[in-house]
Amino acid sequence: MRRVLLAAAAALAMTGTAQAQSVTLGTKLELNTLDPHFFNGFPPASSHSQIWDSLTWQNEKLELEPALATAWRNLDENTWEFTLRQGVTFHDGTPFTADDVIATIRRVPTVPNSPSLFTSFTRTIASVDKVNDHLIRIRTSSPNPLLPLDLSRVFIIAAKDAEATTSEFNAGRVNGTGPYRYASWTNGERLVLRRNDAHFRGPAHWEQVTERVIARDPSRVAALLAGEVDAIDLVPTGDKPRLSQDSRFTLFAGPAGVVHYIALDSAREMSPHVGAKDGQPPLARNPLQDARVRRALSLAIDRTAIAERLMEGSATPASQFLPPSFPGTSQRLKPDPLDLAQARRLLAEAGVPNGFRLALHTTTDRYPKDSQIAQAVGQMWTRLGLQVSVEGVPGQVFFGAATRQEFSAFIAQYGTAEASEGPRAVIHTNDATKGLGAANRTRYSNPEVDALIVAALAEMDPEKRIEKVAAAIDAAFADQALIPVFHPTWDYAARKGIVVVPRPERRFNALMLRREG
Q1: How many Å apart are CA 464 and CA 492, to the nearest integer?
Q2: What is the pLDDT of residue 168?
Q3: pLDDT tens profile 443-479
Q4: 3-class DSSP state for residue 227?
Q5: Which one of 173, 278, 411, 513 has the fewest CB atoms closer than 10 angstroms to its CB?
Q6: H or E stretch including 297?
Q7: Residue 20: pLDDT band by 50, 70, 90 thresholds?
Q8: pLDDT tens for each residue of 279-315
Q9: How far, in whole angstroms, is CA 395 from its chain's centroid?
Q10: Residue 9 CB coordination number (10 Å)
Q11: Dmax (CA) of the chain
């Protein structure tokens, strides 16, 4: 231990321009692609936002700001005009023009084998017309008041790269307009970036950025203590007290616009990991199709115990996708209380009074305490009378398997920047042609809920829209479309002299770090 502390002290005492101008992050986010349109997930969104820009940009308060577009306006309910920024070049020197936007939007729905396409954000775009090199008009198939916000999630690539495959991007065909340019990448291990001094916002804080994937929580903390990294994300709750008392480090925290949730296979008559308990007669059908069963499973979860004891206070019980402080969320929904008696009554009403057998799948390396949380939920469902097995799957495998509907019940997280995003992506019936339900991996479907979601998405009046979004959320959770468990809190630690600016989304990148003072 003494050698570790001495090494840490020596590393932190290092001075010089090179150290001052570079930063190394230790992160749990495992980047597994350099294709900016392959996977709508936390790790690529975090890393890619340093390399590529979008038309619009959300700051750390989730306020919309100009980016590659300097202005936008409605010409009518179905037509938006975007003025594009002039004088911008891609990292290889290619000028940015309207052709790049058009090529990007055409590419988004065509990326093969994507576990989660970006079509939720381009779903209403019927056509993009080039007025000139720096002015475009986007026509939508239906009114979409959120189009400028949606386009903050779509990274713009050069038109000449639009035919590139995911493999070609992963091999280093990486050419953005962002504040950092690609230097090197080792899948699942390390990403190295260098500053783009010509970026339109001016030079970023760091000349060189290294993202090191350190999936294990103790290893991230050890790397920080040893001076191998300058900052880490997802600080283990058990390590927060000692880091807060160490004068070499500063802790930072912020609320998350994320829900830790359970998805249930309510679509299929027979589900691969649902069956009768040992020694019981076969089930006539998949009990997860019954909303009363889904509700019973929700009522059997002790959210307070998970948030306060397992997460040690770094979480709050959830009733929907976003905390109710976000605009457009339901003010009626409250987190389900633990109520085993009511849960058992619902199972009896649904015809499965003795419970059933169920496998709950979880990532093992993706979220803080993901395996422990799944085990806790499994034990709670066992007390309800189910026969539960918890199956852990590495994150790189998990989402592809979930998309192929290989699970009957699984735990994941979904982050949103706006209240209607979760319902349209995770709850609406999967419809690739309309870009709805892109993250609906259980193929949940409720026509009444769909109609409410679509009506909310098309409402141009802001106040009416908030009411309609809340109504859609109320209807979805009345049917227990999924089970929200908790909203996490993002915890970070950095060496003295570095400030981390938390964001509600699951992000950890150099754009969030600056020098103190």
Answers
A1: 38
A2: 97
A3: 999 999 999 999 999 998 988 999 999 999 999 999 9
A4: coil
A5: 278
A6: helix 291-299
A7: low
A8: 899 999 999 999 999 999 999 999 999 999 999 888 9
A9: 13
A10: 12
A11: 72
User: What would the two tokens of residue 431 be?
Assistant: 């419809």
- Name the token pair of 318: 């959830």
Identify the bridge partners of residue 487 per DSSP, sorted by sequence position: 316
Average pLDDT, the chain: 93
Higher pLDDT pick, 512 / 17:
512
pLDDT band at 325 (very low <50, low <70, confident <90, very high): confident
CA angle 34, 40, 42 (to 5 degrees): 80
**346 DSSP β-pair partners:** none
- Listing DSSP states for 11-29 in one string gives HHH--SHHHHHEEEEEES-
| pTM across the whole model | 0.78
Which ranges of 33-187 does DSSP label H, i.e. alpha helix? 42-48, 98-107, 147-150, 166-170
- Residue in the block written with tokens 């300097």: 70
Question: In sequence order, which residues have a C-beta less than 8 Å from that of residue 352 and are 6 or more positions away?
Answer: 283, 287, 293
Q: Which residue has the tokens 């600056």?
A: 514
Which residue segments constitute the domains of the chain, with CATH numbers given? 2-248+496-515 (3.40.190.10), 258-488 (3.10.105.10)
224-247 pLDDT, tens digit per residue, is 999 999 999 999 988 999 999 999
User: Distance (Å, rounded) from C-alpha 160 to C-alpha 28?
Assistant: 33
- CA dist 475 and 421 (Å) reads 15
Q: In sequence order, which ranges of 358-416 are alpha helices (DSSP H)? A: 370-384, 395-403
1 against 440, higher pLDDT: 440
**3-class secondary-structure state, position 155:** coil
Whether residue 338 has pLDDT greater than 70: yes
CA dist., res. 173 & res. 76, Å (int): 39
**Tokens of residue 87, six digits:** 């004088």
For the segment 408-415, the average pLDDT, to the nearest whole number, is 96
User: Residue 21 has which token pair?
Assistant: 């101008």
User: Looking at residue 2, what is its pLDDT?
Assistant: 38
Q: Which residues pair with 493 in a beta bridge?
A: 232, 251
Unique residue bearing structure tokens 């070499």: 248
**Neighbouring residues of 255: CB distance < 8 A, sequence distance ≥ 6:** 323, 487, 489, 490, 504
**Half-sphere exposure of 472 toward its Cβ, with a 13 Å CA cutoff?**
31
Beta pairing, strands 409-415 & 357-363: parallel
